[in-house]
Specification:
By secondary structure, this protein is of the alpha+beta class. Helices cover 25% and strands 30% of the residues. The protein has 25 helices and 73 strands.
């Protein structure tokens, strides 16, 4: 029956660790009798004590800074960062129920700022919330306050109402009396009549840990006036000036408190220390006033010169470790038990005796990875479990392992005060080791108050006379009741004592026996201890002190450890003297038997906590080392491992498994002494993510890469059920590479061997060996290319895995693999390799190897040549017939052949010229663009906000001299502006508009832009609004295709995002991207004008867009003109060289002259093109040139525009620019372009469809093929390519490793939303980012440079920019384009550039993701600065009036939406008030 009960106890459910994993990191949690409450970044969860969710997660949308359980009131008090701090009181039984909510300044606004909240219970029923908040900076829209600590009501019945800090007519508080850089609150609690706060502060000189306390009083003023503080200092060995975690030792000695202190040396094995303080001692040594803190009556800086009190030092430092992160404590009778969490995922238990001396630490939990413990709370109900937070995981850990011990000796020797040996009243029923509070029997045995040893019995031997000695035994236990106790001493199977001993008292007995019974080698004694019905056997060896005569340090060591006395190089019995320690032998000097070993290194010095086999130790004098000793700081007893092999300077041993952390390893000699000291770090277990590639051919030898963590700890890679050896070829912490063994099985399970254990990794799929069928050798230039045919398989072979050799007789040529491509024949791929400088080689065979696979292909030796000859003979008659036919037709086709030869010659010339253009093209297009004509911000923004509105947008732009609106209008607009800053109203308003069927997409864009203008002065709020609306949009899209989100502008928030990007990126656009964009536009314009441009259609020979290609262009030549300008005095200016084309029309000549003038002098000519004429100055006079005059050529009803060639203007001719005169009807003063029928009445370079005599103008009748001129597209691309690449890389590049804060912030927002919605597909995130930034902003800028610059965009320029914009978007696409001969040229033009651009885009996205983000405070500062730069450039009143029109139009629907959203009555009344104010103004006719 007893065994059965023990078994049931061991398998009880309490033995496991229940846990719950959340989607995001746990920020805070609290425990009450109703359950556990967990706060993550934006959600609040309620769990039962089994860690199961009992209510749906509550979305809070922001970080909770104050998180307090009010058990007595049944509520949970939370305060969050949103809306300048907002607090809610929730029902503890169901957090979905909100009891009270208020916007009150309790929480800090920035995530990085510190806050702390806990309860102060007062006599009676009153309770205050102690709210401690430190804020470095406060946004302008939020109230600024200097309170550091306030006392706030927790119930509405208290004076001032809930959350009020007012007391006795004022608001008493604690504040800083001097300016500090950083204040970070760590912990706070009430202990009796005192309230304590623990915080880290950073003064100008050094960081400090500060304890602040005050009296708990119903008078808030009395409490805050009593504030004092003192510095906590730790430790003696080194400074550790940061408090990491804190724990009140409740139920222990008065004022006892435990804290984890951290230094600044992260690599130090003892960087953190666990120290105990008596915090009540500080009250007796602190003067007034305090140097750092004061009540509300003091002024900042008045206590700068106040002397601080002496720092408070610890009572004891009980444990040191490299990375402690959390601590909590319990008190059991007079002993304290500490629980410590570490950054490497260990939960350590440390017991202290009544003198605060620690026992040997024990590991309660050890995680396989490095998830750190951030917070721990004791279960307040059963007080048997500890709830611990480990990043995203919450776990319940039992405080004890009492059930693991089946015997009293093992139960009590671990020195755990939580475990007792419980003896039932019916002893045969239950006698077991159990948790102390569970034992209900009359007899309970536990460890002593003072014991800190891992034993329950202490022996002492002494000589009481020359003939007799006595052995005393003391059990280090406590008990309740009167358990039976006895002990018996035996030696060599018979009783040892002579019978004259005193009667054994409870837990003490002794034994007397003659000295002569102790032989020289010592006497083995066995003691049988009977406590109740439990038997404990202890064995001990009594050494004969007189026989220990070795005159060396070994003799001294043996004498002292045997309980004897060492004096004058002799060992003697102890006659009641105090027991000597090993220190006695430290001063004993004698010649050592062995040379002192020295350790220089241990390889490896890092491993997993499973240990490591065959560790190598290097050093000196290692030949006599017997074993290696390993000492952990979480284990009092060192481990020893025998030496496997040794030389004088090197040895090997097996490093046993251990706990995480740093251990000390030394070399032990046969005499037990240990020398040398090296640190070895135990880390987490290796973790495997997967294999790449995950397939292998059955012959093996493929390079397989394992990705994961801590892979450098792996000893061996194992293929389960395979007898083949696996060879590692490379390993790092994250990558391990090995060669796959040969295997016939289709799937191999890959395991990782770590020490003597294996860890499963993944499966490797084995496929048949690749099949290479034939080869073909083809010479090209000086090289020989070999194409090997391979059947299609699923191996995804990389070109680097192939090794190919070609044989020519006895010569072997190395054939370098170039690529693997899909062949034209179905089911076959082609492997192409190259033999350099061997074009004439005759290859007979090809040898191919991949890992362990090898094959050889022989030259196909068949009747190929004979077959070729037979086919040729069969075609001879047909050839003869064709020859005869051609002879007969020669005379008839002679003229046709001549025309074909002429056409061929022309085509050759055109192709050659196209080739020359591509090879000689340079990008030196820009010589002087002058000042870049940027639009100012308001005009840039208005063109983005209202791209199709035209002049109507001027009402939204505020000019410098514009009058302010009337005062009565300001009142109504201000009311509406205030209403827009209410989140419930604005979201309801937006959703109401979008639900209306007659609300078009154009209306949505207009409203979004109006909101942008109205809220432009408060960009942080506009950003919050946009993010809230985006979250709502994502919720709508979550059930559909998430990849389609943000692809189009079909909602208000999507247009709002476009506007927001434009506002935030204007500075980046102007300072960084503007110049490359303008240079590209200028380069395109110049390249277009380098060749013929048809005046009527706008098509040009040099273009990027096939639709705008002038493939009908005639031959042309460049002409340099000497241009002079008439001045007011009648004189002429100095001539200016202008290069034109002889096919240019007169207006084109004018345009180039004006462009050259602006380029030369940096400013435009005084008169526009429509007001000038040009004169050709020649001998005997001058001739004014017109586009159409009496000499113009007319074909049917279409007139050819006059060109420079028409007027026979030679190279170097003089041209004079004059003002326009009155002209004849054929030469109208206005431009011909103004004629609505211009394109049908005139033509330039493209012939009209009119039949005419081909003998006239034969050059215009040449056959033209459009495809010949496609090289002009490539030529133009080459000319502007450097400008395109410079622009692209400026857009997706970084400046000094940083990107625009807006881009980083928004991309992080998208990442967080994807994580919250459990979207694991990386393509979705890539598409979201692409749709929000490149597609929504950059493409708009690329295609519309007139939005940025003061310029006109021609349709032709628009066509070229569209090609560049398409290439830009293709660079962000995840779809691999399959382009063929029928693909559009705008895709083919940049086809080879797109893969490189895609790599750069992915690198850019990765870089943005890895960059350290701005804090909320820093980003809000950025937004404030952007808004401040352009504060008075928009007419907010005009925008608000337009917004009101929409509000009035859908007022009834808006009211219904507000009621659905449970809007407060106050908000609905505000909406009515706004409507009334605008109604009262209708008579003012402000529309």
């Amino acid at each position: 029956m007893k065994a059965l009960l023990i078994l049931l106890f061991l398998v009880s459910p309490g033995r496991c660790h229940p846990s719950h994993t959340f989607h995001k990191v746990i920020e805070n949690f609290a425990v009450s009798e109703y359950g556990i409450y967990v706060s993550t970044e934006d959600h609040l969860y309620q769990l039962n004590r089994g860690l199961q969710e009992v209510t749906p997660a509550r979305s809070v949308g922001t970080l909770l800074k104050i998180f307090v359980v009010f058990e007595k009131n049944g509520t949970l008090i939370t305060c969050m960062t949103k809306n300048c701090s907002h607090c809610e009181v929730l029902d503890l039984k169901n957090i979905s129920n909100t009891i009270y909510s208020e916007a009150v300044a309790v929480s800090p606004i920035a995530r990085e700022d510190s806050a702390l909240g806990f309860l102060m219970h007062l006599p009676g029923s009153d309770t205050y919330l102690v709210a401690a908040v430190f804020q470095r900076e406060v946004p302008a829209r939020c109230p600024r306050r200097d309170e550091l600590v306030t006392l706030r009501n927790t119930q509405d019945k208290q004076s001032g109402g809930i959350f009020s800090a007012i007391g006795e007519g004022e608001q008493p508080h604690i504040k800083l009396s001097r300016k500090l850089l950083v204040v970070r609150f760590v912990d706070g609690f009430q202990k009796g009549p005192r309230v304590y706060l623990f915080l880290n502060i950073e003064d100008k000189s050094r960081p400090l840990v500060r304890l602040l306390w005050m009296r708990s009083s119903s008078s808030k003023a009395d409490a805050t006036n009593s504030v004092r503080s003192v510095t906590l200092e730790c430790c003696e060995d080194k400074a550790r000036a940061e408090l990491v975690s804190s724990a009140d030792v409740d139920g222990g000695p008065a004022g006892l408190w435990a804290g984890v202190f951290r230094g600044n040396e992260t690599s130090d094995p003892t960087n953190t220390a666990l120290a105990l303080f008596d915090i009540t001692e500080a009250e007796r040594r602190v003067p007034r006033p305090d140097p750092y803190f004061c009540d509300s009556s003091c002024q900042l800086g008045e206590s700068v010169n106040v002397m601080d009190a002496k720092p408070l030092e610890p009572l004891a430092v009980v444990f040191k470790y490299h990375s402690m992160t959390a601590v909590t404590a319990v008190s059991i009778q007079s002993r304290v038990v500490l629980f410590v969490g570490t950054a490497d995922g260990q939960l350590i238990k440390i017991s202290l005796d009544e003198n605060l001396k620690p026992t040997c630490p024990a590991i309660l939990h050890k995680s396989e990875d490095d998830r750190k413990f951030s917070r721990m709370i004791l279960d307040p109900v059963d007080k048997k479990h500890l709830y611990v937070a480990m990043e995203k995981r919450l776990m319940a850990v039992k405080l004890d392992k009492c059930g693991d011990y089946l015997h009293m000796n093992s139960c009590l020797s671990v020195q755990d005060p939580l475990c007792v040996w419980c003896v039932s009243e019916h002893r045969s029923l239950l006698t077991i080791c159990m948790f102390h509070s569970e034992c209900l029997g009359p007899n309970m045995i536990s460890i002593s108050k003072r014991s800190a040893q891992n034993t329950i019995a202490a022996f002492e031997v002494g000589q009481i006379s020359p003939e007799m000695i006595r052995v005393n035994l003391t059990t280090l236990l406590r008990w309740t009741g009167s358990p039976a106790f006895s002990c018996a001493f035996t030696a060599v199977g018979e009783d040892l004592c002579d019978g004259t001993d005193v009667e054994p008292s409870l837990f003490y007995c002794s034994c007397r026996f003659p000295v002569k019974r102790v032989p020289a080698e010592g006497l083995d004694i066995q003691v049988r201890i009977n406590i109740s019905e439990e038997v404990i056997i202890e064995n001990w060896v009594v050494k004969n002190c007189s026989s220990i005569t070795t005159a060396s340090d070994d003799g001294c060591h043996e004498c002292v450890t045997s309980g004897c006395i060492w004096n004058s190089n002799t060992c003697s019995w102890n006659f009641g003297n105090s027991r000597q320690t090993q220190a006695k032998c430290d001063d004993f000097s004698s010649t050592l038997k062995y040379l002192e070993p020295k350790i220089s290194s241990i390889t490896p010095n890092q491993t997993s906590f499973y240990g490591k086999n065959n560790v190598i130790v290097s050093g000196e004098n290692l030949g006599n080392v017997a074993k290696m000793r390993i000492q952990e700081n979480v284990n009092c007893h060192p481990k020893e491992s025998p030496v496997l092999t040794r030389t004088s300077d090197k040895l090997t041993f097996h490093l046993p498994g251990g706990n995480k952390g740093v251990v000390t390893v030394c070399a032990a000699l046969p005499n037990g002494k240990c020398f040398g000291s090296q640190n070895v770090r135990y880390g987490s277990l290796p973790f495997c993510n997967g294999l790449s590639p995950n397939t292998s051919w059955i012959s093996g030898g493929r390079n397989i890469a394992i990705s994961g963590e801590n892979l450098n700890f792996v000893d061996e890679v194992i293929h389960k059920d395979s007898n083949s050896s696996v060879s590692k070829i490379c390993e790092t912490s994250r990558i391990l590479k090995y060669l796959s063994p040969a295997q016939e099985k289709k799937v191999a399970q890959v395991n990782l061997k770590v020490a003597n254990s294996t860890i499963p990794c993944s499966n490797l799929k084995y496929l048949p060996d690749p099949q290479f069928t034939r080869f073909r050798a083809t010479p090209a230039g000086n090289h020989l290319f070999i194409t090997v045919a391979k059947k299609v398989d699923e191996l995804n072979i990389n070109i680097t895995e192939l090794k190919i050799n070609a044989t020519e007789g006895d010569n072997v040529h190395i054939c370098t693999p170039l690529k693997i491509e899909v062949g034209s024949e179905a089911g076959e791929d082609s492997v192409i390799c190259e033999i350099q400088n061997q074009a004439q080689a005759k290859i007979h065979s090809v040898k191919i190897s991949m890992g362990n696979f090898f094959t050889e292909l022989q030259e196909q030796n068949n009747n190929f040549y004979l077959l070729t000859l037979l086919i040729a003979l069969a075609f001879i008659p047909l050839i003869i017939m064709v020859f005869v036919y051609r002879v007969k037709q020669r005379k008839l086709s002679k003229q046709m052949n001549e025309r074909l030869e002429m056409l061929e010659c022309e085509i050759r010339n055109e192709i050659r010229q196209g080739f020359v253009d591509m090879q000689t093209e340079t990008s030196a297009l820009i010589e002087n663009v002058g000042t870049i004509p940027f639009l100012d911000y308001k005009h840039f923004a208005s063109r983005i906000f209202f791209p199709d509105a035209g002049p109507g947008t001027k009402c939204y732009i505020r000019d410098i001299d514009q009058d302010q609106d009337k005062k009565q209008l300001d009142g109504s607009c201000m009311a509406l502006a205030h209403l827009l800053r209410n989140k419930v109203f604005i979201t309801s308003f937006v959703h109401t508009l979008e639900e209306q069927k007659n609300f078009t997409i154009k209306d949505k864009c207009t409203v979004a832009s109006l909101l942008t203008i109205a809220l432009h002065a408060d960009l942080p709020y506009l950003t919050e609004l946009m993010e809230d609306l985006l979250r709502a949009l994502m919720e709508q899209s979550s059930n559909a295709q998430p990849k389609l989100m943000l692809r189009r502008t079909e909602s208000i928030v999507e247009k709002l995002l476009t506007n927001w990007m434009s506002v935030c990126l204007y500075g980046f656009l102007r300072e960084t991207v503007g110049q490359p964009l303008y240079l590209l536009v200028c380069a395109l314009s110049q390249q277009i004008n380098r060749g013929p441009v048809d005046r009527v259609t706008g098509k040009a020979l040099y273009t990027l867009n096939e639709d705008w290609l002038l493939w009908q262009a005639q031959e042309f030549n460049a002409v340099t003109l000497k241009v002079s300008f008439s001045v007011a005095s009648g004189e002429e200016s100095e001539s200016l060289d202008v290069v034109i084309l002889d096919c240019d029309t007169v207006d084109q000549v004018k345009e180039k002259i004006l462009e050259a003038f602006k380029s030369k002098f940096g400013f435009p000519y005084s008169k526009p093109l429509g007001e000038i004429d040009v004169e050709y100055v020649k001998e005997g006079g001058s001739q004014t040139l017109y586009e159409v005059d009496r000499s113009s050529e007319v074909l049917g009803e279409v007139t050819l525009l006059n060109t420079v060639k028409h007027f026979q203007v030679p190279d170097g001719a003089s041209i004079k620019v004059i003002s326009k005169k009155a002209h004849s009807t054929l030469s109208p003063q206005v431009s011909l372009k103004d004629d609505q029928n211009f394109s049908t009445k005139y033509f330039h370079l493209i012939d009209p469809d009119i039949d005419n005599n081909k003998e006239q103008n034969p050059e215009r009748k040449k056959l033209k093929l459009k495809e010949i001129y496609l090289t002009k597209l490539l030529s133009t691309k080459v000319a502007v390519h450097s400008f395109v690449e410079n622009l692209f890389r400026t857009i997706w590049g970084t400046t000094n490793g940083r990107v625009s804060p807006a881009i980083k912030h928004f991309f992080d927002f998208l990442d967080s939303q994807a994580e919250s919605k459990k979207i694991t597909d990386p393509d979705v995130l890539h598409i979201w980012k692409t749709n929000s930034l490149p597609l929504r902003f950059w493409v708009n800028i690329l295609k519309n440079p007139q939005f940025v610059f003061d310029m006109e965009k021609t349709p032709h320029l628009d066509g070229c920019l569209s090609v560049i914009a398409q290439a830009f978007m293709d660079s962000f696409s995840l779809v691999e384009q399959q382009l063929g001969k029928h693909a559009p040229t705008n895709k083919l033009l940049y086809a080879k550039d797109i893969p490189q651009y895609k790599k750069e885009v992915k690198a850019y996205y990765q870089l943005v993701r890895e960059l350290q983000g701005l804090t909320n405070l820093e980003f809000n500062d950025f937004l404030h600065q952007e808004a401040k730069k352009h504060g008075n450039e928009f007419n907010e009143s005009a925008a608000l009036r337009e917004i009101y029109k929409y509000l009035e139009r859908y007022f009834n629907q808006l009211q219904e939406k507000l009621e659905q959203n449970s809007a407060s009555g106050e908000l609905q009344q505000q909406v009515q008030n706004v409507r009334q104010q605008f109604e009262n103004l209708k008579s003012c006719s402000w529309e």
